[in-house]
Amino acid sequence: MTATIPSALFKQLTNNGWRCPILIKGDMETRYQVAQTLINQQNWQAGFNPDTLTTNNKHLQAYLGQELDYVWLDSSSFFDIDVVCALAGCIQHGGALILTFSPTFIEQDTTNISSLPYPHNLTSHNYSYYMQRLWQLSLQTAGCVIVDNCQLTTNAFPQALEEKFVKPTDLTSAQQTIFNALSKLKKQGHYFIKADRGRGKSTVLAALVKDYLQQGTHITITAPAKRCLTTVWNWLDKWQCDKDNLTFVAPDELTQVVSNKQNNNSILIVDEAAALPSQLLRAISQKFNWVIYATTEQGYEGSGKGLSQHFIKQLSMDNELVETFELTKPIRWALNDPLENWLNSICMPNNQPSLSNNQSDKISFKFIQSEELVGNNQLVVEIFGLLSQAHYRTTPNDLKHMLDSPALKLCIGQNNQGQVVAASLLSEEGNLTQALANEILNGKRRPNGHLTPQIIAAQSGIVEFSQLKGLRIVRIAVAEALRNNNIASNMLEWLSQQASDIDYLASSFAASYPVANFWYKNNFKLARVSTTPEHHSGLFSSLCIKMLDKSNTVLNQRIQQGCLQQLSFFLPSHYQNVTGNLLWLWYASLAQNNQLTLSYKLVLVAGFAQHSTNLYAALPELYNFCLDKSVLIMQILPAEQQNLLADTILKRQAPSTVAKTYLLSGQKQLIKMLRKIVAELLQHTDSAK
């Protein structure tokens, strides 16, 4: 006999404009029967079933933007927390998120096991503190329905709204405000409509498209997949719009189209923008004078907050960002929705602690275990909220990794009131056998989680590094109100002191100058730079290492020599767009403490500074001289001179091009400035002797 979920519950849901989470635990036949009976009873047609996505078929973006009656995922099939959160936003009022679990889903969790950072010899399942927390909190969450081995529990619903929920059939006042502002674009540039799921941004887009078409404007519209625009198409069909001037073009195809900058009667609309890499957005958006984006940034779309922290920030710096709008009130469901409340508390806890104005100067650090976290939800909320705020690519799945991965360690910093003000997530790496290291070198193995030894073995050819034990800092975050107080640096120093059996600390990150400079100041040495930009930010990924055991100094020098060779070789072809200050920082990291030997003829360097040697005769010597003095260059030269020197000496751009970039009168003025810069470097070199 199986439990039956009463239809009256869904009548109440529909009246209140709500949705709810339904958790069903039991053997496969039982839980599937309960779920299927429910779907049939409610006559739900538009839905998402356990076999819709698989581990090898994860085209989630194709479903975003649609309206569904239900989403059903099973723990023994494809089950991904990011997917749960994303698809839940597609469920309309009166519907449900159905999660079915095996009887041992906590003790023998198999969900997404292949993506967990873990040692290469982990078995096929492990105990899941994440699932334990999910089940425990669900038992306490208002409006959550639970079927545990045919026993039905229905948690009381939240306080209902005073009025019956009616889904809007026209624009709400908030939507109308945005429509009025964008229906007649007065200034060229970029406009953003931001909203969490179910807030009606697609409806606003549809209304704008209709209005532009009636004005005779040509519209190019794009999204990660055409199905993402289902709501837009449905509205346009309902309004019987003539779509002759509306063209859908896939994002990658847009990079190939001819620029529309000459056509002031053409607009680009980008839906689900955060699901597209910032690099791609930049490439396609520069082809249009008018661009409107609609997006959510809840973390599971792709680039997540990277859209704001990289793309939108860059547009603002370039004075191309005109205005940003935001929709906050849901229209696909009513306020106080049980499903949205469940998601926010269990899957996406991101509340920040309210820090006192009188913070103690003393911050204490400690490691914390998953067993402690699962019984202290407030601590989980503080830590995950901190990591989410500080890192644009933090997703709901990261909480599962944090709680469940055997290879991850969590360090926190607390103030005198016990509040978490800093957190660091670390991955245990290395300690690999010689045989496995050789397989990595030969491209036969890629053991998950061992990023640093993989990169060093496969790209630098130094296999013995794989046998060292290391900790890689996956995330490090400090509460925004307390940044620039050396808390993160103090945490790194504490970790260095605690790691008695660890050979190195490492970090891999998308390299902007401020981030790279933080690691440089904390004595992490550059070990490798990617040759292709990072997918979401458009920045190059950098690997830095801090050796803790001095007996590995020679090994570290070999790694740095290989990195120097890589940078020098790829600089003319791959790193031309890297800023000068970041290039000098990279080289300074390699040259620091005289670990690298660079030879050059000082007489030619001095001859150039003294006007007796021409630029091209001195250029090879200037190249090594400047690399050798990269630390000095960072210390004494202003940013513009650093960039000018990098463009001419490192990137070897034509003097005429460099002169034009820096608004100089010509090549003569550029060379005069270069001679003055080199003379200053020589002067500081002599005075330091």
Can you tell me about this structure?
The protein is of the alpha/beta class. The strands form 3 sheets. It has a 7-stranded mixed beta sheet with strand order 13-14-15-16-17-19-18, sandwiched between helices. 47% of the residues are buried. The model has no long low-confidence stretch (mean pLDDT 86).
Keywords:
7-stranded mixed beta sheet; 26 helices; 6-stranded mixed beta sheet; alpha/beta; globular
TL;DR?
The chain is an alpha/beta fold. It has 26 helices and 19 strands.
Distance between the termini: 89 Å
Number of DSSP strands?
A: 19
Helix content: 40-55%
Largest sheet: 7 strands, mixed
Widest β-sheet, arrangement of strands: 13-14-15-16-17-19-18
Shape: globular
Q: What would the average pLDDT be, to the nearest integer?
A: 86
- Indicate the low-confidence ranges by residue numbers: none
Query: How much of the sequence is in beta strands?
Result: 15-25%
Question: Which structural category do the helix and sheet elements fall into?
Answer: alpha/beta
Count helical runs.
Answer: 26
Radius of gyration: 28 Å
